[in-house]
Amino acid sequence: MVDPMHNAVDHYYAVKGTLAGSWKGLDKDVGIVNWHGGLMGKNCKFFADLGLKQILSGYYESNENGDGIKEWMDKTKSIPGISSAMYTTWEAKYGATSPWAINTWRAARR
Q1: What are the distances in angstroms from CA 66 to CA 4, 8, 30, 100, 108?
Q2: Which of 7, 37, 94, 102 is the most exposed place for a label (fewest CB within 10 A)?
Q3: How far is residue 43's CA from residue 51's CA, in Å, rounded to a whole number?
Q4: Is the pLDDT of residue 14 over 70?
């Protein structure tokens, strides 16, 4: 709830008020699990500029072949502090784990 390009905004879901500026209280030891893959890294530089480490963790039910994580990793390759990526499923779709992992490993080797 600290991403101004995603959820740190006014009236996000059931929030009465705003989450704007919520990132200002983050300690440098806090890590960000960045799960808005749809932004393809546009928000990653924001967190890197704050000195925060990140893990890429998109929502993969809509991208079961793993192309999305490969593209996301390619687009963020030059951004410091991104340490890894993790497979995330909210619907128990574990069949996508292998193609996703293969694409992740390929992108990481570049």
Answers
A1: 26, 28, 27, 4, 13
A2: 94
A3: 13
A4: yes
Q: Which residues pair with 84 in a beta bridge?
A: 55
Name the nearest CA neighbour of 38 among 58, 11, 24, 17: 58
* Residue 86, CA distances (Å) to 13, 23, 57, 70, 74 in order: 25, 22, 5, 12, 15
Size of the chain in residues: 110
Question: Mean pLDDT over all residues of the chain?
Answer: 88
Contact residues for 52 (Cβ-Cβ < 8 A; gap 6+):
26, 28, 30, 31, 32, 81
- State pTM to two decimals: 0.86
